[in-house]
Amino acid sequence: MEKLEYTFMTDTLAKMLFVKHPLLLQKLVSQLLRIPFDNIGYFAVTNPEMPPESLGDKYCRFDIHMIVDDRRVELELQIENQGNYPERTLFHWARDYSSALPAGKDYRELPQVIVISIISFSLFDCEEYHSEFMALEVDRYTPLSDKFVLHFFEVQKLPIQIDPDDRLVLWLSLFRAKTEEELRIIEEMEVPEVSEAIEAYRTISVSPEFKEVERLRTKARHDEAQAMLQATLIERRAIATKALGEGIEPGVIARLTGLTVDEVVSLKKTVIE
Among 6, 27, 52, 182, which residue has the fewest nearby CB atoms (within 10 Å)? Predict the structure, then answer.
């Protein structure tokens, strides 16, 4: 099977795709939120840009922020579980909610804020691929407010067999696909909007614009890694210098710091001088 170099879970590619094709994004969101497409009156992406200064941030996710009628919606893609994903999602929701009230307005005018996470790892101990969270009273399950909504879609838990009539699973299967064959199987189901999304994906994944974004991201992350490595080396040399001043043998210092014995001996000459 031919593995895809970039997938629908590649955040820069997905953002570029859906910003350039907002109608496809609207159709995806209507499935994710179970809102009939024709019932959406107003739809807009509020952060279409991808700032170059963010490309090197390994913790940066190129989320898509939208207004869907009177709701604020954020779509996030995450490939790896870094151990704090629920907390980060809560933080993102709180950030959006706290900034949603214009000055001088009543709190009752705060919009519903929804964070949708499509993730490639197992997050919850359940078989269901979709989990929805709201603020509820713990015994009576009475909703506190409809302003708080989190959706998690764990694509690894999707059914293996895809029903072309199940549009939600069909859309999510795009984000699960890692090979050209998987995309081809989905494409052969001939669902117009999904086939259009695959065509847009193929066009963007080879476009000079996307290639340049990925080049800048790779370079920025390489520069960041080099800077971190250099900082680590400076710290280790400082520790070794201090240990030498306390009379610790170079071989012991080398084992503790990860420096070579020759590097420690060279530092020792500097300390003596």
Answer: 52
For 182-230, what is each residue's pLDDT tens digit? 999 999 999 999 999 999 999 999 999 999 888 887 777 677 667 656 7
Q: Which of 123, 147, 153, 151 lies closest to 135 in space, CA to CA?
A: 147
Question: What CA–CA distance (Å, rounded) separates 256 from 252?
Answer: 6
230/237 Cα distance (integer angstroms): 11
State both tokens at 17. 């795709």
Q: Which amino acid is at 74?
A: E
CA–centroid distance for 77 within its chain: 4
Tokens of 167: 């549009």
pLDDT by residue (tens digit) across 23-35? 999 999 999 999 9
Q: Phi and psi (nearest 5°) for 45?
A: -90, 125
Which residues lie across from 3 on neighbouring strands? 179
Instruction: Note whether 40 and 27 are within 8 A (CB).
Output: no
Contacts of 51 (CB under 8 A, 6+ apart): none
Dist. CA 223–CA 232, nearest whole Å: 14
